[in-house]
Amino acid sequence: MKYNLDVAVASKPEWVEAVMNDFNKFLIDHADCERKASAFSMGMVAKYPDRLEIIPELIEIGIEELEHFQQVYNLMVSRGISLPHKIEEDPYLKLLLKICHSGRNERFLDRMLIGSIVETRGAERFKLVAEAQTDPELARFYKLLWVSEAKHGNVFVKMALNYFPEDQVYDRLKWWVEREGEIIDALPIRAALH
């Protein structure tokens, strides 16, 4: 069953072009995003240890994202690319987090829904990268990632439904999808996931 909502604003063809023109730079950013995604899930476990129903799923996502980081890292090594000393700030995530509610329960819901929309955007973009690849191995790799990200987009909404009424979850998710579309549309195009 599909729980998440599709992105409101499709990624521009210029974004795909930027990624394909500087794929090594994209890989560095992609590795950073996988590390951050793992940290996000584990951070949710640390911040909400009382939410026992979702801790196992959050841990699974954290591990899976770390495995994705390892896979991207191995790809970087095979291409002679080093990890940078510093993880760059993600303007996309910064803008999303800036408009989160501040109350404990409201912020919890917002963070779950941000998790969903970030993963859903990742799925949309990894699909575009897979389709643009001329290397069959890279196309296969990004297809697997797009399927995984789509699954995570669903899981975060499903987790939120453990704690909040369906109407509240989907009203807020619709609001987030609209804000995310505005944010992604306004950001400069670069060889980065967001």
Features:
194 residues; mainly alpha; Ferritin; 0% strand
Describe the structure concisely.
Helix content is 73%, strand content 0%. By secondary structure, it is an all-alpha fold.
Describe the structure.
By secondary structure, the protein is mostly helical. It has one domain (13-186): Ferritin, CATH 1.20.1260. The protein is 73% helix and 0% strand. The chain contains 7 helices and no strands. It has helices spanning 13-21, 23-47, 55-78, 91-98, 104-132, 136-160, 166-186. Helix 2 runs antiparallel to helix 3 (55-78), helix 5 runs antiparallel to helix 6 and helix 5 (104-132) crosses helix 7. The protein is globular, with a radius of gyration of 16 Å.
